Records
---
Amino acid sequence: MSHRKNIVAGNWKMNKDYEEGRTLAREVVAKLQPSDTIVVLGAPFIHLKGVSHIISEVNNLCLAAQNCHQEEDGAYTGEISTTMLRSVGCDYVILGHSERRDYFEESNQLINAKVKKTLAAGMLPIFCCGEQLPVREAGDHEKLVAQQVKEGLFDLSAEDFSKVVIAYEPVWAIGTGVTASPEQAQEMHAFIRSLVAEHYGEDLANATSILYGGSVKPSNAKELFSQKDVDGGLVGGASLNASDFLAIVAAM
Ligand code: 13P
């Protein structure tokens, strides 16, 4: 019924030195089984070119950066542009991760600018949203996620929006070993899809891939991915080990 893509993306965050990153990418290439699932490796900036070479022969294996700058180029010491990312073979850019929102004070407006820059450079944004624990405890999680999604994405044209992947990552489940229950994930994913349907229509909503992130492991991936509105995962810790990551891909 749905024609949306299944995607399992690893977010290596700030882990692995250059050689370790290349080793991990080689292990993934060696053991990845052919399937329709799109598998994405989200590597640190300096790994991107090396990983790009390693994965280039594998059709459904893609490369993501974990951030970008919102300007085209210029005097922004220490920053990385979307043009640079595209030039080393990036397909996706992870944007609005809660760690970027929390530690680097990225606002919905800034993330929106990065989404547009990423699209303009011909790459696909993996747009992250999700609430902190106190927000969920107060019952305001849908309200907060709706604001993130609306301010981050909803001024895009339908054509641009159709290229966006959304990742719901409840902050209380990231790196904590506590996973959202399949029911909690499904409920939020269905809610996000309803927001998209309201704004862009049912067809686009049904075509939007919505990934779950937060302590996804080989042991819980299948149950999470079997939910109707969960189209894959954004995996942190477990993506640092090729066997665990590939077991999660296989669960898709
Ligand atoms: P963990 O899988 O380590 O909880 O991290 C999730 C995440 O933040 C992926 O972007």
---
Amino acid sequence: MTGGRYLRLGVNIDHVATIRNARGGAHPDPVRAALAAVKAGADGITAHLREDRRHISDDDIARLSDGLDVPLNLEMAATEEMLAIALRHRPHAACIVPEKRQERTTEGGLEVVRGHNRLVPYVAALKEEGIRVSLFIEPERRAVEGAAKLGAPVVELHAGAYCEAALAGNEGARQRELERLRDCARLAEDLGIECHAGHGLTFDTVGDVAAIPTLVELNIGHFLIGEAIFGGLESAIRRMRALMDKARADARGARSA
Ligand code: PXP
């Protein structure tokens, strides 16, 4: 066990595009937000090009691919159309997510066990192009094992259930969900898979997740873009970064005490 390496922050800028698209113009520009995020300490930028293009557009992906000097993590459904786009732009990473037209956000993890055969060619094609493949999965052991069978170098654990339990003040469920994240992050490391987490994280919920020593990256979007309304994007990201660093340092101190 590595005992607490640096925890990367990937900032998801989808909802800057949501606000832009509400008026159909060019403002606010998600690429400008991405550059501000990097200035404030983001280690990477995440963007989800949805089949229905409800927020990020094809042009955004093209501009992010050209304009960033930090890794771009393209979230994408396993479809021929998205694969062709990923192969064209060759982002640093591609996170395969499940996608349903009617959902408000990515509601669950990928079905990596039942969907194994369907996912095999997508994982293979992305890997062949040197794109780091990540699979967005529920924090379940069978899903981590399923990702290993698919040869994915990275998994991202869906933190939504943990965040919902925390926000609802349900301490029992919060502890159970946190333990599921911990257990799967440990298992991923044992299987040689880099482990990320994301979805629903806020200033209040990030600490306990950031303290999990086998996590390498958190991807955070909606809350940061919402907070930006009140204090600015850079300030929100700096505070998130500080909370992550403090949680890591405290957990390291507790382990060595
Ligand atoms: N990670 C993945 C795979 C996601 O699909 C999302 C949401 O698009 C996030 C992280 C970020 O979640 P949130 O916007 O709730 O912070």
